[in-house]
Amino acid sequence: MSDLYPAFPVAVPPASDPDPGVSAPYAALPAVVAASSGPEPEVSDAHSALTLAVQGGRHAEAEALVVRWEQGAVREHGAGSAEALHWGEVRADIAMLAGDAGRSCEAWMAVAAARLSAGQSPDDPAVEAAVDRAHHQWGRIGDPARARELGPTLAGLRERVPGRREGALHHVQERLRRLQGRLQTQR
């Protein structure tokens, strides 16, 4: 993964001051980023720490690291900053590598929404790529209830960001209809 993303120094938020919105799995962070006494440590190659965690099958640890760095980037630079968007994309990739297409889809949709909120155009390649990746991950969700849950948000994004592939919005709408039909027949 470190080959996919450029390495840049990241200030690690303090371990003793977790974001109140962070759920329990993210509150306990691995020793690799534990705060030292003194100034906040610089992680010169955060991607290496993530790669080691993912390669070791420690996806929850990797996600906790990414969430922490993403929250720090949002606090320091804003939700639409390159730093925050980068960590959101890494979070989406880690969810994909962990085999959780639903979480990956959600993360890609959040990245797309943040890019749009930051003023990027719907035809900006980075916005299109985020929506395309969300769409791809949504198609890989095996749980019909989870796909139904995420489908309307994806359809809303597809209305704003149709992408370059003809029929992408139609595909989302059609799959949602089939998922709803499956729900109706189960009742």
Topology record:
Blueprint: E1 10-11, H1 24-27, E2 42-43, H2 46-55, H3 59-77, H4 82-97, H5 101-117, H6 125-139, H7 144-160, H8 168-186
Antiparallel strand pairs: 1-2
Give descriptors for this structure.
single chain, 187 residues, mainly alpha, two-stranded antiparallel ribbon, globular, disordered N terminus
Could you please describe the fold and organization of this structure?
The protein is mainly alpha-helical. 63% of the residues lie in helices and 2% in strands. The chain contains 8 helices and 2 strands; from the N terminus they run βαβααααααα. It has helices at residues 24-27, 46-55, 59-77, 82-97, 101-117, 125-139, 144-160, 168-186; strands spanning 10-11, 42-43. The protein starts with 9 loop residues before the first strand and ends with a helix. 33% of the residues are buried.
* Bulk shape: globular
Biggest β-sheet description? 2 strands, antiparallel
| Mean pLDDT value | 80
Number of strand segments: 2
Distance between the termini: 44 Å
In N-to-C order, the SSE pattern is: EHEHHHHHHH
Sheet with most strands: strand arrangement: 1-2
- CA-based gyration radius: 18 Å
**Helicity range:** 55-70%
* Helical/strand content category: mainly alpha
Q: What is the number of helical segments per DSSP (H or I, 4+ residues)?
A: 8
Low-confidence stretches: 1-43
Q: Approximately what portion of the residues adopt beta-strand conformation?
A: under 5%
Summarize the structure.
This protein has 187 residues and is an all-alpha fold.
